[in-house]
Design brief:
Chain B: One of its GO terms (molecular function) is 2-methoxy-6-polyprenyl-1,4-benzoquinol methyltransferase activity. The complex is a heterodimer. Chain A is mainly alpha-helical. Chain A is built from 14 helices and one strand; from the N terminus they run ααβαααααααααααα. Chain B contains twelve helices and nine strands. The chains are: A mainly alpha, B alpha/beta.
Chain lengths: 311, 288
């Protein structure tokens, strides 16, 4: 998060230099990475930095609009009739978007992306420049689905009349239904996301998804910790996603039944954890009001017991 | 007052242009550390490569300790060749990069893993362009040794990087390995590269570049100026050519400057990667 903010700042600051006007984009993408001779022990830190700069579609957009206008100014100095420059991020997004059509047939592969690039009218060579190629396609899809979900929520999904567990059910169902057209190739997407190089980004995307769902559900009357909430929802989402892979029922009825059960389990879990907490607090109230008091109480109890058994 | 500010702006712009042009022309009139006339530079470079052609590959191996193979592998890896691509390798005389691209496209393992259309395989064209016919002959010989003499995918063309004989928007990929240093006008070569590439086509340049790391830089300079010309004398019998080589590396623009030149030619997403601490750099860009 701090990295993308810093890049945005750099891009904004670089616009004012008159000599090398296209460098703002350069600064965010030129990452000179050093390799030791022959061994190619590439620093993974260095590698993951450039994908972050390219993959996240939003942060760089403050740069391009400004640089394209100054770019045309410089273009006039030298060559009048230069057509407007397409920003690489936009081009990548267009190619990936067109590639999604080919995924059910060709899978989440370079072939699908090359077919997509041909549809857009760009040489398939461009696929060679996407970082972590297939992962770029999967991550693009995940981002798109999240955006679609957010749009659906904003355009007035009827959540007010539902209790939290039903809201969660509805949101997860909407999100999973977006994957239905690609269900035959979804296992491949999951394995791509699980690849060590891709885990940071896929984890981040799932975290954002879960965050968004909780945000839409509203916090409700829950005492659970922020992380625990998201972890549990992440678990419910992932298990349902995997269940869906092998579900042949009509309109995935079995999946929704499974999802319903899991959401209820999660809320029951919440209730039972809450009960355990009240119980613990009652014990704590006996020896002191705070959790620290409970700890001390436990320690005291334990030390008392061990002292007793020594005799 | 307005006039003064206008003239100051004009003056600074002219000054910028002049210094810009001057720094470019310094490459055009430099033959290593010597100053030569522009018209003469290409002739002098031509002589160098005519002399070294036959021992070019051996000298590469000796000077880089075999590392140049890894660098070229990395270059082709970055390119990600695909079946049916039209690729241009400029200044690729002896065919190192071209053969690697050929192998990458035609490798049986790759074909098995991906569903490659046989028809598109046939359409693959790899053009090897070099200004020096001697270097091309060595390349053709090596092709014959590999059994690729009559292969239609490999096309050997004699031509000038500053004035290519290919159509606009005809190439999916353009590579130049250890060649752009020898071109008289770098910006012309870059402009030609931009011209022949299709939209979405990639430009990749592998070149000896500048080392900034303190102690390593000194070692590298020592190696370049003391060891390499002697190796040249010993193995190729030509000290001057290798003296030119190490000097021309120093006169070539550093990584950032070259990257900005590439961006000025119109390319997008200009990036570079240093190998061996900057001894070699791979610059990549896309035409959009």
């Amino acid at each position: 998060m701090y990295r993308t903010a810093a890049k945005r700042l750099l891009a904004g600051g670089g616009i004012t230099t008159t000599r090398l006007l296209r460098l703002p984009k350069l600064r965010s993408t030129i990452i000179p990475s050093s390799y030791t001779s022959g061994l190619c022990t590439s620093s993974i830190g260095g590698n993951t930095e450039s994908p972050m700069g390219n993959q996240s579609v939003n942060p760089n957009q403050s740069g391009p609009t400004a640089s394209s206008s100054t770019g045309t100014g410089e273009g006039q100095r030298r060559h009048e009739s230069r057509k407007p420059r397409a920003e690489f991020q936009e081009e990548q997004a267009r190619v990936l978007s067109a590639s999604l059509r080919h995924v059910p047939r060709l899978g989440w592969t370079e072939e699908a992306m090359m077919a997509g690039s041909r549809d857009v009218g760009v040489s398939p060579s461009i696929v060679g420049s996407f970082s972590r190629k297939e992962a770029a396609l999967v991550e693009f899809f995940m981002d798109e689905c999240l955006q679609l979900l957010m749009d659906r929520i904003d355009s007035g999904l009827d959540l007010q009349n539902l209790i939290p567990s039903e809201r969660i059910f509805k949101l997860i169902r909407i999100r999973l239904e977006m994957q239905v057209p690609y269900m035959s190739k979804w296992p491949q997407a999951l394995s791509i996301q699980a690849h060590p190089l891709n885990v940071p980004t896929s984890f981040k995307q799932r975290a954002m998804l879960v965050d968004e769902i909780w945000h839409a559900v509203g916090d409700g009357a829950s005492d659970l910790d922020w992380y625990v909430k998201r972890t549990i929802l992440g678990g419910v989402y992932s298990t349902t996603e995997i269940y869906m892979l092998t579900d042949d029922s009509l309109e995935h009825r079995d999946t929704w039944a499974f999802l319903d059960d899991r959401v209820k389990d999660a809320f029951d879990l919440k209730k039972s954890i809450q009960e355990a907490k009240y119980f613990a607090e009652d014990i704590g109230a006996g020896v002191g009001k705070s959790v620290q008091g409970l700890m001390n109480g436990v320690m005291q109890t334990m030390s008392r017991r061990s002292g007793g058994s020594a005799f | 007052m307005a006039l003064r500010s206008v003239s100051r702006r004009l003056g600074s712009r002219i000054l910028n242009q002049r210094s810009f042009v001057a720094s470019l022309h310094s490459h055009a009139t430099s033959f290593g550390f010597q100053e030569v006339k522009e018209e003469e530079k290409s002739k002098l470079v031509g002589n160098v490569f005519t002399n070294v052609a036959s021992s070019y590959d051996i000298m590469n191996d000796v000077m880089s300790g075999g590392l140049h193979r890894l660098w070229k592998e990395r270059l082709v890896g970055k390119l990600s060749p695909f079946a049916g691509m039209k690729h241009l390798d400029v200044a690729g005389g002896t065919g190192d990069v071209a053969f690697r691209i050929y192998d990458a496209v035609y490798s049986v393992k790759r074909r098995a893993l991906q569903k490659v259309d046989e028809a598109s395989l046939e359409e693959t064209q790899i053009y090897v362009c070099d200004i020096n016919p001697n270097m091309l002959n060595v390349g053709k010989q090596r092709a014959a040794e590999r059994g690729l003499r009559d292969n239609k995918s490999l096309v050997w063309v004699e031509g000038d990087a500053e004035a290519l004989s290919f159509d606009d928007n005809s190439m999916d990929g353009y590579t130049i390995a250890f060649g752009i240093r020898n071109v008289t006008h770098i910006e012309k070569a870059l402009a030609e590269a931009y011209r022949v590439l299709k939209r979405g086509g990639r430009f990749l340049c592998l070149e000896l570049s500048h080392v900034e790391i303190p102690v390593f830089k000194n070692l590298y300079d020592l190696y370049s100026f003391q060891v390499i010309p002697n190796l040249g004398e010993l193995i190729a019998g030509d000290r001057e050519s290798y003296q030119y080589l190490v000097e021309s590396v120093r006169r070539f623009p550093p990584q950032e400057r070259f990257a900005s030149m590439i961006a000025d030619a119109g390319f997008e997403k200009v990036e570079y990667e240093n190998l061996v601490g900057g001894v070699v750099a791979i610059h990549s860009a896309i035409k959009l």
